């Protein structure tokens, strides 16, 4: 199995631009999680999906952030408009409904100038 | 509410010496406990977990962790540290039906 796949691995953009991060979970996993990692705040859960349905988005920082999961093998996290304080590493993770362990992707390092 | 504490931001140990990275937790009900490792510019890699059973669990790369219910701790250990073990280590807890809560991380430096 290829594991959780994220793209792009690195993104540099200017303030005000739209940013779209992509994630492909492990096949057969029906839970998908989006996290953000910063030095100041550590790992934060932004949102998670079960069977493509958003379950809890209370961690999404503000309306500029949105996430979708149109099918079982693809999810996006969009920031519009982006701001410098959004600079962070964004991780996607997935697990099965009966499994206890989350498996993480390699992350997308976002820099907003 | 669930919470995880990793009391040490940084742990330094000489190569070949035993290492311990500490973790304490708070959760209602029986905990599911995890350790993950993060190498520079990489995602989090699963090391080991405690769900039930033997309090001493063994994981990848020679790591092990001991679940202590009375002390609500789940310390990560390795008998002999390697320089390549230098990384950021995260403890996480999950109550039944709940999501993961991660600790702040402990940076382990193994000195040659």
Describe this structure in words.
The complex is a heterodimer of chains A (113) and B (112). Chain A has strands at 5-7, 10-13, 19-24, 31-38, 42-50, 53-56, 65-71, 74-79, 88-95, 103-104, 108-112. Chain A has 113 residues and is mostly beta strands. In chain B, the strands form three sheets. In chain B, strands 2, 5, 6, 10, 11 and 12 form a six-stranded mixed sheet that branches. Chain B has a four-stranded antiparallel sheet with strand order 3-9-8-7, with no helix packed on it. A two-stranded antiparallel sheet of chain B has the order 1-4. In chain B, a hairpin with a 5-residue loop joins β10 and β11. The radius of gyration of chain B is 13 Å and the shape is globular. The A-B interface holds A 4, 33, 42-43, 45, 48, 56, 91, 93, 100-107, 109 and B 32, 34, 36, 41-46, 49, 51, 90, 94, 99-100, 102-105.
In summary, what is this structure?
The complex is a heterodimer of chains A (113) and B (112). Chain A is mainly beta and 113 residues long. Chain A has strands spanning 5-7, 10-13, 19-24, 31-38, 42-50, 53-56, 65-71, 74-79, 88-95, 103-104, 108-112.
Greatest interface:
A-B, 18 and 19 residues
Number of alpha- plus pi-helical segments of chain A: 0
Helical percent range of chain B?
under 10%
Mean pLDDT of chain B: 93
Low-confidence stretches of chain B: none
Query: Measured on Cα atoms, how large is the radius of gyration of chain B?
Result: 13 Å
The strand count of chain A comes to 11
Reading the helices and strands of chain A in chain order gives EEEEEEEEEEE
């Amino acid at each position: 199995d290829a594991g959780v796949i994220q793209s792009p691995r690195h993104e540099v953009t200017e303030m005000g631009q739209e940013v779209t991060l992509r994630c492909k979970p492990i096949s057969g996993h029906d839970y998908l999680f989006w996290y953000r990692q910063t030095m100041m705040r550590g790992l934060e859960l932004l949102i998670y999906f079960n069977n493509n349905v958003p379950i809890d988005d209370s961690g999404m920082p503000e309306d500029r952030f949105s996430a979708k999961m149109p099918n079982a093998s693809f999810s996006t996290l969009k920031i519009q408009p982006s701001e410098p304080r959004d600079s962070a590493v964004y991780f996607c993770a997935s697990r099965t409904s009966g499994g206890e362990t989350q498996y993480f992707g390699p992350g997308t390092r976002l820099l907003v100038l | 509410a669930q919470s995880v504490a990793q009391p040490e931001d940084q742990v330094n140990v000489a190569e070949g010496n035993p290492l311990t990275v500490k973790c304490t937790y708070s959760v209602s009900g029986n905990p599911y406990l995890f350790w993950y490792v993060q190498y520079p510019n990489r995602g989090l890699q699963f090391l080991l977990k405690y769900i039930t059973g033997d309090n001493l669990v063994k994981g990848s790369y020679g790591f092990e962790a001991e679940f202590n219910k009375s002390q609500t701790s789940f310390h990560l250990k390795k008998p002999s540290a390697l320089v390549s073990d230098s990384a950021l280590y995260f403890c996480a807890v999950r109550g039944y039906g709940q999501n993961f809560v991660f600790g702040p991380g402990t940076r382990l430096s193994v000195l040659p």
